[in-house]
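Figure 2 data, in text form.
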Amino acid sequence: MIRRHQDSRQTRLDREPRSGRPATGHPYREYIELSGIQLLPHVQRQGIGTAVIEDLKAEAAKVALPLDLGVEKDNPNAQRLYERLGFVRVDETEQEFRLQWRPPPQTAAET
C-alpha cells in the first residue's frame, strides 16, 4: 500500500508481513491485484510508477503468481506504461481494460 504522509513530502510503499503466504496475504489467491496507483501530475514521468510496478512484479515472481490490474480506457498514457512493463490485455469492461503480467517460468535451479 502506498501512503502519503501528511507531515512530509514522502511517499512510501508499506508491506505487510508475508508469513510464507502469497503477496496477497491469502493462501488461496491465484493472482496479485494492483487495485490502484495514482501520481500527481508534477511527479509523473519520473520513474516512480515504474519503480512501484517493477517492485510488485518482483514480489509476484517470488510467489509465482500473475499480477493483474485494471486501466481506464480513456487513459492511454497508463496503458502505454503497462504495456511497456510487459502487461497484456486479458479482458475488458465498459470502462476499463483488464491487464495481466505473468512471471517467467521458474527453472529447476530456481525452485
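Caption note: The first strand starts at residue 2 and ends at 4.
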